[in-house]
């Protein structure tokens, strides 16, 4: 019996931690099927599919979701492009002040969001820029760029320069070398950076709240709704996003596993001489 | 004068490459004849890889010109040169399968139908049926052959090989050496092979250029370089040599006579690169014969006596170390066909050799060159049959000008 416990206590702790991490998400998922008894009630009252059938019953909420998606997409594209270019410059070119810029890149990640939010607001006010959709985009690009640079840089630094030399040696021009060798090899890093940027942008509240003006993003809507009673559709959006993220992760790991299995299959088949 | 060169010869004309203050390649001029298997041999940091990269176009010379046939290719981008490279680490594209790796060069030049050529090339390197695999699924030797196929499929005028066998184990390396020679004979393309492995260079190439500190010390057929090295560096980089400090004392009709440490040595005049002043008298270890009895040295042979300090049995041969009266350790290789039981450590022996096996190199007496302790002891005792006590611990190798050129 003691032996049995000794062998399994690590697993037991792991399950507890896993439960601690997933329980809040499961609650949200459960509440998305709830018909609340009153506006401010979070008790599970009655099972219903209404929330899923009409997620946009509360019109403001869906507007906010769409706005967050728009901001997220624009911020992702801009920060991914900028950040990737910066990563190439920082890894591939020696120039004065490179190490300084490398340090500067970490600043937005290390600075408390509250500080960034207020200082940006002060900047916009001082410059006379009206706050709204585009100030949110600017703010999001600013903090996303750092994460993109760091992610792409890591991938790029691990890449063998001789592969590019080999491509040039094999009649590929600079552009062809980039297109056929560099880009495909760095792409996983760029995609990861883009996904990270989108998720950072989509759920940012503090910085957004300072620079939003009258524009309402989804996190801001949820925050505001929490005072008056959260419509159950919020749980639908939350659950749907969680499931989509889960599917994406599952699909990518499945692809990896299938590629590995295919590789093993190739190895197993006898092909010509050794 | 360019007209004199046949169509495909590669010529380097006064090429220099500096990285900051470091001169990697120093005023190098070199001709690699079309169709030859040419080896650039040197220690790491001697400039051989830089030379190769300048030919490939991956590095621009600081000054000088690179010519292929009559064409000046000095300023040409790498992808405009009819030259392909097999990289030291192979540099196969990890995201492409073997077929696409090999087809890469053809596709970049706009050739659509590549299947048949790729198949033929994979067959040449004995990798038929491997087209759909990824580089990571192949062994080192197979990757090496893919790298070779990927370069050869373009029918370059010249193939550059940058230590292509360095990452392989000994047995595989032997196998690939034979295979590379076979392929070179089959396709007839000029191979320029960069290596630090003197055995590999001698084995494979028909011409070897020994590089040191950005310059070529000697160039020639492997046997010529080995039998008659041009400098102490070459004498000890390509195989081993026993080099004895000596002074020229005169000559007769055929032979140059030199004196060193009380011994007189004869060397045919045509094997002397210096006929006056301080010289190195050199002889290869396998040219020496050992006798326990000094009186049995045949007439007209050069001889040195000493005490046997070590005997290393290496299967095919045995290496004897002989310590001379002046403390130099001479190395003697003997084939293991008739071992002499009297040759044991501590015994006094005499090594002798035919004068035609010696060679004489100029010795630079300037300071620094003798920094390794083998400096002449003033008034060294004659005869050399003295007590054999370890003198000043000098070593037999001359200073190799191997300046920390890394």
TrEMBL record, chain A:
InterPro entries: Bact_Polyamine_Transport (IPR051789), MetI-like (IPR000515), MetI-like_sf (IPR035906). PROSITE patterns: ABC_TM1. One of its GO terms (cellular component) is plasma membrane. It comes from the Bacteria. GO terms for biological process: transmembrane transport. This is Spermidine/putrescine transport system permease protein. Belongs to the binding-protein-dependent transport system permease family. CysTW subfamily. SUPFAM superfamilies: MetI-like. The keyword Signal does not apply. It is a multi-pass membrane protein. It is found in: Cell membrane. Residues 65-255 form the ABC transmembrane type-1 domain. Keywords: Cell membrane, Membrane, Transmembrane, Transmembrane helix, Transport. The lineage of its organism: Bacteria, Bacillati, Actinomycetota, Actinomycetes, Micromonosporales.
TrEMBL record, chain B:
Residues 10-238 form the ABC transporter domain. SUPFAM superfamilies: MOP-like (SSF50331), P-loop containing nucleoside triphosphate hydrolases (SSF52540). Residues 380-396 have a biased composition (Gly residues). The keyword RNA-binding does not apply. GO terms for molecular function: ATP binding; ATP hydrolysis activity; transmembrane transporter activity. GO terms for cellular component: ATP-binding cassette (ABC) transporter complex. The keyword Chaperone does not apply. Keywords: ATP-binding, Nucleotide-binding, Transport. InterPro entries: AAA+_ATPase (IPR003593), ABC_SmlMolc_Importer (IPR050093), ABC_transporter-like_ATP-bd (IPR003439), ABC_transporter-like_CS (IPR017871), Mo/tungstate-bd_C_term_dom (IPR008995), P-loop_NTPase (IPR027417), Transp-assoc_OB_typ2 (IPR013611). PROSITE patterns: ABC_TRANSPORTER_1 (PS00211), ABC_TRANSPORTER_2 (PS50893). It holds the Pfam family ABC_tran. Residues 358-406 are annotated as: Disordered. PANTHER family: SPERMIDINE/PUTRESCINE IMPORT ATP-BINDING PROTEIN POTA (PTHR42781), SPERMIDINE_PUTRESCINE IMPORT ATP-BINDING PROTEIN POTA (PTHR42781:SF4). This is Spermidine/putrescine transport system ATP-binding protein. It comes from Micromonospora humi. The lineage of its organism: Bacteria, Bacillati, Actinomycetota, Actinomycetes, Micromonosporales.
